[in-house]
Amino acid sequence: MNTIKTVLITGANKGIGYETARQLGRLGYRIWFGCRDAARGEAAMKSLVSEGHDVRLLPIDVSQDESVRAAAARVRDEDGRLDVLINNAGIPGGPHTTPSQQRIDSIRAVYETNVFGPIRVTQAFVPLLKSAGQGAVVMVSSGLGSLGWLSDPANQFYGVNILGYNSSKSALNAVAVAFAKELASVGIKVDAVDPGYTATDFNNHSGYRTVEQAAAGIVWLATQDPAGPSGRFYFEQNQIPW
């Protein structure tokens, strides 16, 4: 059975997910390179392989049950375990408007990927995380999901009032807490992380942080001792309010 540490990163073909894969590859992890678009994922994966990283393309659409089940079956058949799961795939939704005007179908689409997707993937991969003996699940959230920050007039995010996206990340944080409570007894640590306002396609490269900075926080959390505190929310290695 494989003894190399393995990690699955959803939404890995670009931006923060891609850089997270690169940084974990440098630490010797085998990367399960999760992406919805196999063609786009193949090109991105080859770039990492050319750098010497151990990367395997894993087509996975987090919004589709069958796709997630097939991905879990492949990892089970080829590795028999998973050490780290990073739920990174997400969408911003749009167009952004006032909460009273945002369409329900738009909000529903955001939740399908940002909330139900991580639930679906985590449920499917829990048996493989258990097979590893101990492990970690990282929910890539956002400071816009922090109710503490959003309700503080002095916080930089106070004026960003996007009903669908913000609430989906608040919900994701609650999902992290729920899984953390269940899985602590079997040595699986579950936390959420805010990568910060990062310049990616997600926001038309308007963010002030680099993907390297954003990924560093995710990698730090993914590589913490699974026996440590679980069910926390972090930014820049510091705990932040839910």
UniProtKB/TrEMBL annotation:
Signal peptide: none annotated. InterPro entries: CBR1-like, NAD(P)-bd_dom_sf, Sc_DH/Rdtase_CS, SDR_fam. The keyword Oxidoreductase applies. The keyword Oxidoreductase applies. GO terms for molecular function: oxidoreductase activity, acting on the CH-OH group of donors, NAD or NADP as acceptor. Gene3D superfamilies: NAD(P)-binding Rossmann-like Domain. PROSITE patterns: ADH_SHORT (PS00061). Keywords: NADP, Oxidoreductase. Belongs to the short-chain dehydrogenases/reductases (SDR) family. This is Short-chain dehydrogenase. The lineage of its organism: Bacteria, Pseudomonadati, Pseudomonadota, Betaproteobacteria, Burkholderiales.
